[in-house]
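Exam revision sheet. Question 4 asks you to relate a sequence to its structure. Input first:
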Amino acid sequence: MAKQVKEKEPLTFEYEKTSFPNARVVCGTDEAGRGPLAGPVYAAAVILDTENTDPELLQKLDDSKKLSEKKRDELELLVKKHALSYCVAYSTVEEIEETDILSASLHAMRKAIDGLFIDRVSSKEILEKLDIAEIGGQEIKPDAVIVDGNQSRDFQLPAKAVIGGDGKSFSIAAASILAKVARDRYCYEVLDTTYPEYAFAKHKGYGTKAHYEAVDKHGLCPQHRKSFFRKYYDAKAKQ
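Answer key, structure tokens:
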């Protein structure tokens, strides 16, 4: 008997509409880059019009991990075009090392949410101080937030964690697209340009064989998350 394949549940605005009965505006937030060995962790926050978002965007949206790079790039443009408000922010390698990757990821999400209602004519210097990579759309303060994952601690707004939210919520899926594309772009334009010997454009900082070989040859660069290499170096010391 052929094994039945469970059909993928469609993305909806269900969480945006039902999680907070008194909230008029709910944003979705997600991160990208918890697993890599180098570079900042990025996050995005997105507000979509739950009643009148472009059908083309909704039809194409999906969890960023399930899409090709080409499709993510196309969707990034659509999200930015049709979102009521969006912000992409990050937590630095230094912050990751001072705390931990989960705390840094959540903090990046909170920075992205704050960026939704920052003045849209803020200078580049102000945005850099706030660890904001880019903002767009209208200046809107959401009433609540739905967060991809199982943690929603320390948010200033009412927050609900949604496990697998990037495959359930339109807003979270849109945020996952912006965060992933922005982080990949950072790997291409900054990490790979500054440290070409590590080939960051190819592996995006993940622990590939080629990446570890480059580290063995050149050592760690300032953008490597040193704490992520403890087990690796411990294992090498025992060889």
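Marking note for examiners. The mean pLDDT is 93.
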